[in-house]
Structure formats: structure tokens, C-alpha cells
Amino acid sequence: MTLAKRIIPCLDVDNGRVVKGVNFAQVKDAGDPVELAKKYSEHGADELVFLDITASQQERDTMKGVVRSVASVIDIPFTVGGGIRKLDDARDILLSGADKVSINTAAVKNPELVTQLMSIFGKQCVVLAIDAKRNYDGAKSKTMFKERGKKFWFEVRIYGGKEGTGLDAIKWAKEVERRGAGEILLTSIDADGTENGYDIDLTKAICNSVRVPVIASGGCGSARHMLDVFERTDVDAALAASIFHYEKSTVDKVKKYLKRSGVRIRI
Amino acid sequence: MAKIAIFDYGAGNLYSLKSALERNGAESVEIIYDLKDLEKFDGLVLPGVGNFDPAIRSIEGSAQRLGKAIDSGMPVMGICLGMEMLFDRSEEGELEGLKILNGDVVLLPKDKVKIPHMGWNNLHIKGDSRLLKGVRDNSWVYFVHSYRAVPNDRKLVVASSDYGVSVPAVIERDNLIGVQFHPEKSGDVGALMIKNFIEICDNETK
Questions:
Q1: Chain A interface test: which of B8, B16, B180 (most A C-beta within 10 Å)
Q2: Structure pTM?
Q3: Cα end-to-end distance, chain B, whole Å
């Protein structure tokens, strides 16, 4: 236990602007990605994640420009995801200055992509994003959980949460680890946008199943939620968007609070 | 004003490093693919992306030139893999290292810790260092690596970090500097080290 727990602001980018959705829908404009990146970095963010949420071909080029501008102003690592379908997409983003790429739908459609990315760019460049949602329909050979008497399992969803895959998130996490993912960015669709706190059941289950670092995402509404996820799970990093974008809190305030509460934090 | 060169092994993202050198006071930063015209520059950076064997293959034709430049006092900073290459050999590859520093590069203790060592860790400063001028003990820096250097001469290690084992984090021998972490990704503390490196290069030009 020597590494600091990381606090990661996430910026969803739509055609060159930062936006914030609720439950994977309903988008509001939250600012300029380069300005926000600079601000978060100055406030002590340990890392940043940019998710390109539209990713039509034309907008992919917009994103490359955003990545380049961000890389020239900040001095912390950052990850870019969204719309990375093939090796060339990943290469474009990494050569534009990103430290890591995150892939989601493309990995489900073609798991071989994870292996290829790892062998070319190294494990440390490959972040596997898993969007998971509770599924209450009885299913065979799934890792089952129970809450208020109801049984469920965590299903991997793709295309921004719109489509189910039938994949068990716990098994999928193990598979992508085996294929060479360097890190897992775990988003709870049930918790996302609610600001009621991270999904502890999901986060704990994934952290207990893999040895690669896990980033918890979805549901953060306060610094208290971050403390909660660090105290109750072995997660390595906590990602949040809205509490930072709308200035409910700042990265440095959150980090001071966590440090006071006994979490190993870089300040 | 220092003109800095970054050697490209062909392994990817050098843009962040180039930007960091530019932001922190280099007069110019050029990415180079061989070491033919080294005398045009005041300092050289061997970056930290890629794998041991391909990187060695890309530089071995220029190894003599590099050795001469270092002997003549040119400031050289190897980052991560760029430092590991300077040693005799590495467990990551089959090829011999550049043998500019004596010692081995070995895998981190995989039974004790997650590999790669990826994230923010503390620097324990052990000795005088020009790179670390003004850097406080226990400062946080950003690591991404799976191997560590074991120099024969332990006195070269001026700072280390704990990750299941003591990991040499900064190595200095005259104007030759090796860092295991990424100063270009280590926030304000990293920026200060890059400024210090540029200052070392500046002093050589005077």
C-alpha cells in the first residue's frame, strides 16, 4: 500500500465541448476541455479522463485537436476514451499526446483488440472501460448478488449503456485482465448521475476479482462518497464529474478532506 | 538558452515530454532519430516509452557517439526506459544494454506488488542532487514501470521510492541523470526538475 489513491475528474466531450449527462442521457454544457483540464491539474487532480461521447468520424478529428491542446498545457497523465474502434484510432489518440486510451464497446465486439493494443503500446496504455448495470432477470452461470431480497447480476452494457451484452461484468473483468488491460475504469450505470454515491457492491466485487488497478465511477455527489468507496473497497482511484464541473467542490478541497480522513493522498 | 534534443526510438508519444521541456524554459526542443548532429544541442533526453530490445536496436548504432557526448560532459537525462537502457543488461530484453552505467535492470517483486508500478509515489531523497534542487523530501512523483535499476555503485542513487522494495528513482553521475518516474507527468514537482535539467544544460553552454 504505497501508491496514493487517485482523484480523477472526468470530462465528457461532445464535439469539442465538455458536457455532463444524467443516467447516460440528457446533456448539459459544462465548458471548454482545455481550460477545465488546466484548472483541474492546477487544483491537484492526479489524472484526467476524457470521454468522447459522440465520436462521429468528423468529430474524431476535433478530439485529436483537443488531445493535442490538453497535452501541451498539463503535466499529469490523462486517458482518452470513446469511439476507439480499431488500432489506428488508438494510435491517433496516443500520438496526439494522451498517455492511455480507454476502450469499451470495441473490446466487447472484438476482445482481440485488447491483446493487440497491449502488445504494441504496452499494458500501461490500455484502460478497459466497463459499464455495468444490475440485471434482475434470472440467468445461468452468472455471479449473483442479493439486495432487499431481490437477486441480480451485473451485466456489461455497450454503446453508452444503451445495449445489453449478456456478459457478466465480473467474468468480463477477469477476461480483459488476462488479455492485457492495464487498468479497469468501472462505471455503474445504476449509480451514474444520481449523486447518491458509488456502487459499493459492484466496485468491491470487481476489485476482489482482478489485480490490475480499478477506477470507481458513477454516482459521486460529494467528497464523502469518495471516502466511502476508499474505505469500503480496495479501489485505486475515484472518478467524478459533476461535483467538479459545477463547482460544488474543488479537487483540492476533496483531497484535503480525504487526507484528513486518513486516506493516502497526494497533496 | 538551452537547445534540447529528444531521441525517438519510434515507440510513440513524445509530445507531452516535448511540451514540458518547452513550457519549462528550453529555447528549442527537437525530436531526433539518430545522434549524428549531437553537437548542435546543449542537452539530450532519452525518453521513457517502448520496450528494451527495440529501443536498444534503434540506438545501438549511435552508442559510441552517445558515450563520447556523455564523457565530454553533455547533460543527458534518461527517463524510465531511457535510463534502464544505460545499464549493462535488463530482464526485459535479450540484447545487451549500452553499458554506460554498470549494473542490471530487474523485474519488480511480482509476488509482493502489482505490476506495473503505476501511480503517484513518494521520493526519498538520499544525497545531493542537481536535478532535485529545491525538491522537498517525500515529494510525490508519477511512476509507470515494471523494472528497476540495480547499479553496482549504489552511491549513484540520490533518491529512491518504496514499492515492495527500494526502487532507485534518481541516479546521477556528473551530467548523466537517470529518473525512473516521469517528471513530465509529475505536476509542479516534475516541472521543477525539468527546469533544473534545463539549467544544467544552460550552464554547460556558458
A1: B16
A2: 0.92
A3: 9
Nearest chain A residue to B138 by CA distance is A266
Q: What is the mean pLDDT of residues A150-179?
A: 94
Kindly list the residues from chain A whose CB atom is less than 8 angstroms away from the CB atom of residue B187. Answer: 41, 44, 75-76
Strand-strand pairing, B89-90 and B103-107: parallel
Q: Where are the alpha helices (DSSP H) in A2-131?
A: 33-42, 57-73, 87-95, 105-109, 112-121
In a domain, A69, yes or no: yes
Full residue range of the structural domain in which residue B29 is found: 3-205
Q: What is the CATH number of the domain that holds A228?
A: 3.20.20.70
| Chain A interface disruption, residue of B142, B161, B180, most A CBs within 10 A | B142
**Spatial distance between the Cα atoms of B14 and B2, rounded to a whole number of angstroms:** 19
Domain containing A226 equals 6-260
Max Cα-Cα span within chain A: 52
Number of domains chain B contains: 1
Residue A265 belongs to some domain of the structure: no
Work out how many domains chain A is built from and give that number.
Answer: 1
Predicted ipTM? 0.90
C-alpha cell at A12: 465528457
Average pLDDT over residues A210-215: 94
Tell whether B136 is within 8 A of chain A (Cβ). no
**CATH number of the domain enclosing B80:** 3.40.50.880
pLDDT single digits (tens) B25-39: 999 999 999 999 999
Task: Establish if A43 belongs to a structural domain.
Answer: yes
pLDDT in tens, B113-150: 888 899 999 999 998 999 999 999 999 999 999 999 99
A52 lies in some domain: yes
At A103, which amino acid appears? I
